[in-house]
Amino acid sequence: MSKPYLLLSLTSLFWAGNVVLGRFVAGKIPPMTLSFIRWSAAFLIVLPFAWKYLAKDWPAIRNQLGLMVVLSVTGIAVFNCLGYWSLQYTQALNALLLQSTGPLFVALFALVLFGIRLTLAQTIGIVISMIGVLVILLRGDVETLSSIQFNKGDIGYTLALAIFGLYSALAAKRPLIHPLSFLAFTTGCGALFIIPLIAWEIHNGQFMTVSATTMAALVYVAIFPSTLAYLFFNRGIELIGPNRAAPFFHLIPVFGSVLAIVFLGERPQLFHVVGYALVLAGVFIAARRASAASSGNPVEPAPPT
User: Fold this and answer.
1) What total number of domains does the chain contain?
2) Is there a domain that residue 227 lies in?
3) pLDDT at 261
4) What is the per-residue pLDDT across 51-67, written as a single tens digit (0 to 9) for each?
5) Of 37, 148, 196, 243, which residue is least crowded by CB atoms under 10 Å?
6) Which stretches within 100-178 are classed as H helix?
7) For residue 22, how many C-alpha atoms fall within 13 Å in the half-sphere facing its CB?
8) What is the pTM of this model?
9) Cβ–Cβ under 8 Å, residues 179 and 105
C-alpha cells in the first residue's frame, strides 16, 4: 500500500486506542503481562503469513542482526513495557500532553545518528501541530497547566517516547526485507526480551484478572495497535522517512480526545475544533515534500523500497 498519510493516520488512531485502553485496564492486567501477551500474540498472528518471506530474507536479517535486535528491544520490548507501566501512575491528560514530544525525539535521534536536519517546513509543521495539541489538552485554558502534577509515570512515559524516537529513526535504516519479515522478527524477538520482566512480575504476585473485558482488551491490542499499526507505521517511514512521518504523532491526542467524546460522553467544544485544525495543518505542512527552493537543506534519505 502506497498511501502514507492514510497509513500513518490509522496508526495514530490505533495507538490512541491503545493509550486509552492501557489506562483502562491498569490494575486488571499487569503491564509486563499485557506487553508480553500483546507481542507474542501479534507474532503468532503474523508468522503464518511471514514464514516464506522470513526464509527468503534471513541472509539480509543475519547481516544486520545487531540492528534488528536493537529495533526489537527499543520499539517492542522497552517502549511498550515502560509505557504500560507508566500508564498505571500518570493521568490521561499528562500522557497525551507528553505524546506531543514524540516528533522532537525522532528529529533529535535522526540528527545525532545520521546528521538529518529538519527542513523549515517540518519545523514549522511540528510547532503548529504541537500548539494544536496543547489547545486540545488544555481545553483552551492556559491555567490548566498549573493543575498538572508530574510524577514517576510522567517521567517513565517521557522516557518511553524517547526510546520510541530512537526506534523510529533507526527503522529507516533497516535491511531491505519484506514488511512481514520485519514485523515477525521484531515482535518475536521483542517478546523474548519481555520474558524476564513478566517472570519478575509474577514472582512479585502480580496476576491478570480474567474477564470478558480483559480478554477483549487483549484481542484489540494484539491486532490493531500491534500487528496493523506497526505494519502501517513501518510502511509510512519507508515511503516518506522518519522526520516527515513524525508529525503524525500529534494525531494520537487528537484521536484520543475523539474517543473520549464518543465513549466517555464528553461534549465537543470550540477548542476541539481549533485544536484539530491546527494539528491537521501542522501535519500537512510537515509531511509534504521539500520544495525545490529548499533542496539545499539536508533532507532525510529515502529508505530502500
Assistant:
1) 1
2) yes
3) 75
4) 999 999 999 999 999 99
5) 196
6) 102-114, 120-137, 152-171
7) 33
8) 0.79
9) no
